[in-house]
Structure of Neuronal membrane glycoprotein M6-a:
Amino acid sequence: MLQITSSTIQVCTTFCGCKECCERCVGSLPWASLIATILLYMGVALFCGCGHEALSGTVTILQNYFEVIRAPGETLDVFTIIDILKYIIYGLAAGFFVFGVLLLVEGFFTTGAIRDLYGEFKITACGRCLTAFLMFMAYLFFLVWLGVTAFTSLPVFMYFNIWSMCQNTTLVEGANLCLDLRQFGAVTISEERKVCTGSEKFFKMCESNELDLTFHLFVCALAGAGAAVIAMVHFLMALAANWGYLKDASRMQKYEDIKSKEEQELHDIHSTRSKERLNAYT
């Protein structure tokens, strides 16, 4: 016969306890907010890292092949604009790191065991206002990332045209095609900074690693911006669900308070009547 010893019971109890603990931990995680946070961090990191290096590659291409020089003093030229864009990238990286943490913490406060532990917080006016504020900020940043995605697609389109010309040099060998920076607003109209297909600079630019690497870095930055847009959509869905839960929880609390109050009043009435009957008998 199968004998069940005390050690076997202890092992089974430990296993069941660990299993319940794991299930409770897994159930308490805000999976929607967690996935959205990971996607947001991946998108922002990809956009900021690749965008920064792509801008640095653009400076190298402008200086080496188009012979564009930095204007002296504080004149607003293409290099100054690129420096401003780099500082904007730094701000995006820092700001969205903090914003992602805030959204993840809000998700924890409305999920699972944390929700049971801090049950009073989730239905207070402060909790509802915080969720509404974060939902407004998520929608605002969703629009911002849409604009960033549209803006990032412009250099991708420009570099794609240049890259296509380089890939088809044999087809455009007889044509006289030129890349003029005045068409892109990189230099003033009075300056003539262009590279034509038959020139030596054009072939050097096509054979260099800067053009190919910068183009693909801008493509990766565009993909990162798109991932950030999807993450903002995930956050909006999670926050909308949390808002609905908070609203229902607030109504349920009011109902429980009214019900408890009525039960207490009925209990007091029965107690008073019982005392009156006892006094009448005595």
Observations:
- The radius of gyration is 32 Å.
